[in-house]
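ok trying this again, last paste got cut off
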Amino acid sequence: MKVKQIAIFLENKSGRLADISHTLAENAINIRALSLADTADFGILRLVVNDTNKAQQVLKENGFTVGITEVLVVEVPDKPGALDCILQVVRKAGLNVEYMYAFTKKSGESGMLLFRFDDQDAAVEVFQKAGCRLLSDDEVHAL
């Protein structure tokens, strides 16, 4: 029920993000979801791609610092209040969200909420008990 995500550390320098997108494009790697956060000195690009292992390999070969982490992907209806419904489950369970980002598969149909919790296993249990649909790595890669 956990999905592999690539975390890339990149210096805050013009063109670095384009270098990454170009490397992935040249290697036929499709980005499913992304999040970019920055500090004064560097950024953290988080990606869910269709081929995590290949992406990690080609990015490392091109000099990027790459790590693999796991996130939980919760499918929700693409409608007002869907995020709140999930966050109320999170709040009630006392889960701590380290970060999250989202994408919509098809407008008006379903959205995907990607979460990183300080206790991923506890979060899986909470979501399963609440009847939330967690997507697998294969399901996310097939989108």
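PB: full thing came through this time. Helices lie at 16-26, 52-61, 82-93, 120-129, 137-142.
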